[in-house]
Amino acid sequence: MALLQFTDNGLYCPDGDFYIDPWKPVNKAVITHAHSDHARAGSTAYLCHRLTKPLLELRLGAHAYQEVEWNEPVFINGVRISLHPAGHVIGSSQIQLEKEGEVWVVSGDYKTEDDGVSGAFEPVRCNSFITESTFGLPIYNWQPQAVQYAQIGEWILQNQQQGYSSVLLAYSLGKAQRVLQAAAMVTDHIFLHGAVANTNDVLVNAGITLPFAKRVTASVTKDELKKAVVIAPSSVLDSPWLKRFTPYRVAICSGWMQVRGNKRRQNADAGFAISDHADWNGLLQAVKATGAEQVYVTHGFQSAFSRYLQEQGIQAAEVVTQYGEAFETDDVPSSTQEQQP
């Protein structure tokens, strides 16, 4: 019997009787990170990284949470579990399972460039590797983060010179913290949507150092918002909430902006191809570094990526999961008072 099985509830370890990132409520869930497609409410108990726990509490509310550090082993029914940095977002982890010499690793979501805040991706040797493939096509090739940050900074400064505020749309956990770092390199006049501010508050309370930014509330005046940088989730695009920042320009921060057509199809002035997922080369490097004899490819371009791995002599198979279905949605609570136009 394999150490992990693909079931209707998610990735199941029969020996340990637990699931990894289940999409239905189960008795024991091991969580890679706090994004909504990988961490869902309703399970009896959760095991996660120390920095993921407060984020789960923010999103899912009170549950039985067990927190561990990276590389800290936990044993469940004879199965050795350890979490290793995935580099995706703060607290994100790969899950390593080991029993009787058989080793599996579940990547969760990951990126291989160290962003300076999410933890550097750590390749983990294994027999079987379950990898995401969100951007598993050769057209996705990210520029270095330093270049991306410089582009964002130049855009902000140009907008300020022309009298515009700069609205940067980014997921409240992950990209928002990176975009904040980029903006803080050129200005300290930064405001946050409530969903981003609440996430940042949790992270700061957990010991993460982030640049200072103000929360957008009903009491913030129009004069205060002139030529400001505003970081918000993509759900505010075309909403009445944006009117208070007029005149403003909007930029979408997403790996999908690598393809120019995506920018044209949305009501935005700019797009920055900044992603919390590995690009094509990053995915290949990660897979090869594991030395895995068997690779299972999940959400994204899993058919194309698994086929390419097979052509390279790597035994690979495509697996259909529910991960990625909540991509670019944002369910972090935000203050109701700030939603008024």
UniProtKB/TrEMBL annotation:
This is Putative mRNA 3-end processing factor. Gene3D superfamilies: Ribonuclease Z/Hydroxyacylglutathione hydrolase-like (3.60.15.10). One of its GO terms (molecular function) is RNA endonuclease activity. Transmembrane segments: none annotated. The lineage of its organism: Bacteria, Pseudomonadati, Bacteroidota, Chitinophagia, Chitinophagales. It comes from the Bacteria. It comes from Lacibacter cauensis.
